[in-house]
Amino acid sequence: MKITIIDTAPGEEDEIIVKCSRLDEELMKMLRQFKQGGMCLNVYRDGEIHRIEPEEIYYFESVDQKVFACCEKEVYETKNKLYELEELLPARDFVRVAKAVILNLNKIDSLAPAFGGRFEALLKNGEKVIISRQYVGSLKEKLGL
Amino acid sequence: MKNIIKRLQTMLDIFTRITTAVICVTAVYIGIFWGGKDVLSVSILWQILSVSAICTLGSFLIPCGTEREVSKKSMLARMLLYFIFVNVVVLGCGALYDWFSFSSWKMVLAMEISIIAVFAVVVGAGYFAEYKTAEQMNQKLRDRG
Fold it and tell me: Looking at domain A25-142, which CATH architecture does it have?
């Protein structure tokens, strides 16, 4: 892909123009990242927009069609769907651990077996998140087991 | 296909655990009730293998791999059903193979204790395997820093 940077005239607004024959998945991903403003996510709480870095987030949870970003103490709402977040977030750090949960591996304090092939992640803020049996395989894969 | 392979692996694993535990329990049971009989028919081996195989079929009640997730309550109910199934199979086959007589309460009690012991060992071995997996994942998490 060719990248061209053109100087703007004094006072002219910075602009990104995408020239392509069609918007493929890779381009869409890049555009989403631009919209999110690099590695920061736009999240909402009490009618205010906040920008937080993914590393501050412990896990994302989808409840009643809404997606929440849970940090150490605060909970924000995000407009992204979980499948979009899976693409946006650093793949090394975030992993889907249940149908409705994406977990930050760096925030796990320890893992323990739970009933019925599931595992329980104790997070560094004391919260517990259940890792669904269906996603244990992908977690093991992510950890290199 | 992946699910079928996982299911077959799980069943083979359970069959091995059941057979091992049944052989141990049988050695004790025969020693107590048939101590004077120092020659056993080869048919006892086929009887043990057939009972273990039938008991293994009951493991279909317990979901594994990426099969549909069930609630904790449903999982407990399935475990209870599995235990009842094992009881019916072992007591039914045991009576058929003349391992014991329903007229001797001591033998029936010993059979029931044996069933509980084998069930506990098989479930315990499964939990231990999950515990080991959790430990391996914890180690990998620690290695990530």
Answer: Beta Barrel (2.40)
